[in-house]
Amino acid sequence: MRKITSVISVLMAASLVLAACGSNNNNGNAASSSAPAAATPASSPADTGSAAPADDPTQVKATISIYFPTPDKVQERKLEDDKIARFNQVYPNVEIIKSDWQYNPNEIGIKMGANEAPTLFNTYATEGKFLVEKGWAADITELWNSYEKKDQFNKTLSSQFIIDGKVYGIPQRGYITATVVNTKMLKDKGIAPPPFNWTWDDMLNTAKAAADPNAGISGFAPMGKGNEAGWNWTNFLFAAGGDIQTVDSKVTAAFNSDAGLKAIEFYNKLKWEANAIPQDWALGWGDAVGAFAQGRTAMVIAGASDPVDQALNQGGMSPSDIEVYPNAAAPGGSHAGIIGGDFLVINPNASKDEQAMAFRYAVFDYFNDDFLTSLDANIEARKAENKYFIPPVFEYFDMTSEFGQKVKAVYEKHDNVYQYKQEFLDLLDAKLEAQYNTQDYYAAMTNVIQEVFSKQGVDMKASLDATAKTVQEKFYDTIQL
Amino acid sequence: MEQTTAVPIQLQPRERPKRKFRRNFWGYLFVLPAIVIFALFLWYPIVKGLMDSLYKIDFVKGDSFVGFDNYRTVFNDPDVRIAVKNTLKYMGLGIVIGFWVPILFAIMISEMRKFQGFARVAAYLPYVVPFVVLYGVWRWMYDPVGPINQVIKSFGIDPVLFMVDKAWAMPAIVIMETWQSFGSAMLIYLAAVLSIPRDWYEASEIDGAGVWQRIRHITLPAIKNQILLLLMLQLIATSQGFQTQYAMLDGGPNNATLTYALLLTRYAFVRQDYGVASAMGVIMFFALVILAIIQYRLNRNGGID
Asked: For domain A36-168+342-427, is the CATH number 3.40.190.10?
């Protein structure tokens, strides 16, 4: 009997997951009284609703937990530590707790359900609609409108979290996907690097020439495992002039258009005509970017700064070994790349004081000369470690603004800051990701991509249409606009 | 004749509950942690899972009762059919490829006259390799230019694309898991084999039995109960498999390694649809209960211990 009990106990281990999922279903009702445990002690009733924030915000007592970069992001952690110290000089009564939790779509539900999400947490551009629909992002319109520098934000980024006229997030930085090319590998093989305004034909020919399957080297490493496969392919969809979905009175799948067909046919060519992708194409984001840094592929598509960072700071390459290109243009298309970014969101369960302080913390360094000093010191520190500083392609501010020019001057002062070429920046065509069920679309497209990579002669049109029908019926038809 | 008189039986007065409690106080106290742990981590989740399967779960707005809608979603989802098929395939491959390996090694090691201790440790070592390392190593082993394909190519055969060929993906995972975990089961078999009385073997040798006859007529029958027990435990474990499928291939290529448990986690943690995930969990629970009952019956009839 003991045996059967222990066997059943093993069987039931999976049920724990279910229990964790449903342990707190009244969160919304308790929202105002159940701020994160760490934040509770300082937010006494005397603080909440008092006149202090309006009169003298520097005297507000509050405890806020903030998103703190993960240990691998050394330069960001240093900047954040420095920021906390400076923030506490101005707001000495605010206790800041570093949260090592990184936003994860798979975990946010649990964090919110358990009331353990930080007061200020990071998220991605695509998550805006989702967080707002779930009620997991505080409406910060009032705080935003009272911020005197709100008009200087990069509008392409900030608009991602303005939904129905209400503001739900603060932009941190943006990325645009680009094709990073190992130009040293091309030169070593006697291949002329393509021009910046390259086309799909240029890309195909370059990838074919650079590939050496017997040595395990590919010309281009598309991501083929998990949802990132769909994300990577979407660059080609956009470059061909296509869209993921159209939104009017309802959301309609649009990725099975002629542009979508062209894009999947190009993948088919890369695999079956050029034999230019890795034989083992089941690569996740880390696998593909890692393969680039290890010199196992000549080209990879990702947020521009990431492969550069890995290649220079981990792969031991030098800036002259690589080049960041805009994505190749399809015939009649553009050099479109997916724009995305990091945003800060305030926990709606936090008290008003905590929300106000979290907002102040989020924008504390924005448009601020102290940040320039800190940035300068950080770049110096990286230099002492023989590391490069890789700036994001898009900042929260417009690079042409006065503050943007100051930042640019700091970057140009150091020789260990990676500089994106102007030709690259001039050709960029930023395309926003879909805001509805993006991950579901990526997952569905991943199947189509894997089918094309696994089997020659797939009816690509039929496969795209069937996937579009599934996505439409399963996800888009349930959206009420 | 001596006359005996019947002595009326004195019925013991019923012990008062309070007194009984006091007498067994320490016993109850020792049992309490087990009861709390079982209630919290076993029975409550089962009941909660059953309840959640009938609700649309929303952490913020509150749950709403949807009857059997979640079950309808499960039965109408074509991915569920693929996942069930893949799970059965995974369970089957686990038996065909992996189940006999620890038995074979246990018998081989028990026959060794020297280096038996070393062989035991060597066979068990892969079991302590961290999963992250394991997956990294085997991705390299299976790489088109990795060591396995180098050997294959040396025979003039085209490389096998283990990770992206739909026919190979699941067997490749089972082979990797077999390598990693056979040592653990082997120790159980080895203990059983070594407990077989040596005089049985000596008697059979005197009767002229060879190695194969000894294994067939003595060893295997003697460890039959362990074989049945571990078979059931393996079936139960593989029916819930998703970790390797997720980490190595995320269910690909083209859903070839999408197992039922992996799809369940996707419903819960990617789609945030905990109601449907709970319904899948409940269905799985009943399927596993059947396996557990079979195991229980075998336990009772065969005396597995």
From this structure: yes
Chain A residues in contact with B166 by the CB 8 A cut-off are: 454
Q: Determine whether the interchain pair B144/A279 forms a contact, defined as Cβ–Cβ distance below 8 Å.
A: yes
Q: Which of A180, A42, A448, A447 is nearest to B255 (CA)?
A: A447
Query: pLDDT of A359-382, one tens digit each?
Result: 999 999 898 887 888 889 989 999
ipTM, 2 decimals?
0.76
Give the rounded distance of the alpha carbon of A340 from its chain centre: 6
- Superfamily per CATH, domain A176-335+430-478: Periplasmic binding protein-like II (3.40.190.10)
- Domains of chain B plus CATH, in order, are 69-302 (1.10.3720.10)
Question: Best mutation site among B44, B60, B82, B160 for testing chain A: the one with the most A CBs within 10 Å?
Answer: B60
Chain B contact for A2, CB < 8 A? no
d(CA A393, CA A412): 15
| Domain map (residue ranges) of chain A | 36-168+342-427, 176-335+430-478
Mean pLDDT of A73-91: 87
Residue of A1, A4, A8, A21 to mutate, testing the B interface (most B Cβ within 10 Å of its Cβ): A21
Whole-model pTM?
Answer: 0.76
Query: Quick one: DSSP state of residue A199?
Result: B
Q: Is pLDDT above 60 for A461? A: yes
DSSP state string for A223-245? --SSTHHHHHHHHHHHHTT--SE
